[in-house]
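User: Once you have settled down, look closely at the record that follows, taking as long as you need, and be ready to discuss the fold:
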Amino acid sequence: MPTPPENAVRHLTELSSGPPLDPALRVTLNFQPDRPGLLDALASTGTYVSQFTTGTSNGGLTAHPGGDRWRWESRIFNGAYDEAPAHIRPVYGALNFRRRSAGAAPRFGSAHLRLTADVLPRTTFCYPDSTFEPTHFGVAARMSLIALAEADHQDPLDDYIEAQVHGPLRIDRDVEALVLDPSFRGTPVERAARRLPCPLEWHDGFKLTVEELRRHPYFRGPQYVVLAEHLADDGWLTPHVLAQAFGQYDAQDLKRVWHCLARFGSVS
């Protein structure tokens, strides 16, 4: 009898069209590596699980029966997961078709797990993000979404192709590397990262001056420029600077400052 992941992939395959995906492309899972216990949990369990299991997210917290995430998955996957336990549900990332060093969807965090090519056959895709209830889907064998995304004119933080990885995601088997921002070199984040059963790499980094951020007061709101001024270290913002503020300021406010840093402070 087919499993829920198999039913989900089969359903999206029937809705997909286009040429095969370039096997050199990778799915990345962006996240904030400084969140308490996150890297320790990855090291101890050896698996990456969805927000239905963790109860945490860098997006919306709607992963519960009847919540928005539950409804989106029920619609997209034709009810395949409606009766499934939380740990079976897919995990979310994005297809790095633009080959960005910081991952495909940095709006969700400065770090990412870069998945192996072997994960692609059990990955489904949609554009735009599933929060917008998309009608365009793809799988590795039928991928028309890249042309669709390239023809769109989204803000760089929003132009990703969402990926849903079905089946268990093991760090030692399914991850090519954990990729961190260089501002975390020599910090507890690096030490925790080195306990994971996968290689550690560094991307080109995010770094933004408050002076530059003042030129974009309405990207997330002028109040977040003011907050950034309070947080900056000698006039600079980096992921590590924001990490030091976690727990001292409202998490949603810090997320919006991060969006500013990710949008205007990308080195690559």
Notes: The chain has a mean pLDDT of 94. The first strand starts at residue 27 and ends at 31. The chain is about 30% helix and 15% strand.
